[in-house]
Amino acid sequence: MENNPIQTMLDEHEIISSAESIIKKLDGMWENDIDTYRTTIHTLVTFFTEYADGYHHRKEEEVLFPAIKNHPEFILEEMVDELEQHHEEFRDYAREILEHLESDEDEKAYKILDDYLEDLLDHIGAENDELFITAETLLSEEELETIYFKFKDIDMELGEEQKTELEGTLESLPI
Question: Using CA of residue 92, residue 97, residue 101, residue 107, what is the dihedral sign?
Answer without folding.
Answer: positive
